Amino acid sequence: xxxxxxxxxxxxxxxxxxxxxxxxxxxxxxxxxxxxxxxxxxxxxxxxxxxxxxxxxxxxxxxxxxxxxxxxxxxxxxxxxxxxxxxxxxxxxxxxxxxxxxxxxxxxxxxxxxxxxxxxxxxxxxxxxxxxxxxxxxxxxxxxxxxxxxxxxxxxxxxxxxxxxxxxxxxxxxxxxxxxxxxxxxxxxxxxxxxxxxxxxxxxxxxxxxxxxxxxxxxxxxxxxxxxxxxxxxxxxxxxxxxxxxxxxxxxxxxxxxxxxxxxxxxxxxxxxxxxxxxxxxxxxxxxxxxxxxxxxxxxxxxxxxxxxxxxxxxxxxxxxxxxxxxxxxxxxxxx
Length: 336
Known about the structure:
By secondary structure, this protein is mainly alpha-helical. Among the domains are: 25-118, no CATH class; 264-336, Serine Threonine Protein Phosphatase 5, Tetratricopeptide repeat (Alpha Horseshoe). 60% of the residues lie in helices and 5% in strands. The chain is globular. The model has no long low-confidence stretch (mean pLDDT 89).
């Protein structure tokens, strides 16, 4: 059995996690209301794990925990591409009061099936990784009853529509589990949406204190600091995001903005926009901001090309209208 209990770094993702999926007969995917939140990103790890299990014809069993509904709008919108196939598998509801019964059905019915697909032997590194994750899980402290109820409150908060109800549920989750980093993070997002920037900043900071390897919390705190003109802190947060999630184009875009507008580091900003565009070739706003730098450097050919790319990608930045960009292109062509 392989379980990514402690978390495996991005550099080892394909070598260890995907290889272990290929080596296992069964693939269990735990579905809560928030489980598929990031799966609209083609590079999301959970999405790639599910796609690998589909491609290799594993015995896929969706385990549907309390509150999960394939037809909920927030979930249905993320079931694109191969993920749409999840609804077609024979899923197993796991009601909290009948957990033991559900696990019995899982063993006796869902996992007791023939598998015709060829299993690929795992490498020694993948096998060693599986043993290390098993050992970590087996030595983890016993989960207490209050800790079991905290995720239920978290999922209720995530699934709620009313922001006051969200805050109430996240607060209950934190009351039961004071070290619940995810609850602090999503509480911060809700406070941000409500206009409480200082409260959001405190929540992001607490989430990071509890989990120093939390790229989303660093990114959200960096954006918040940038909006409050705390540029040094924002740049530090973006550096942590890049360390933990180097393939995230938006962090380079925002760091470029911070460098360009407040630090006057045009070359650094140019490098960040280059990386954002490399990771996201249709990133219209990054083309626009890069064009501004090219224009300032009197590289009018490059500026025209980026302004045109902004238009081609359907750019609709709040910074500028398409008509204004078209006029800038005409003005730059006169300078050639």
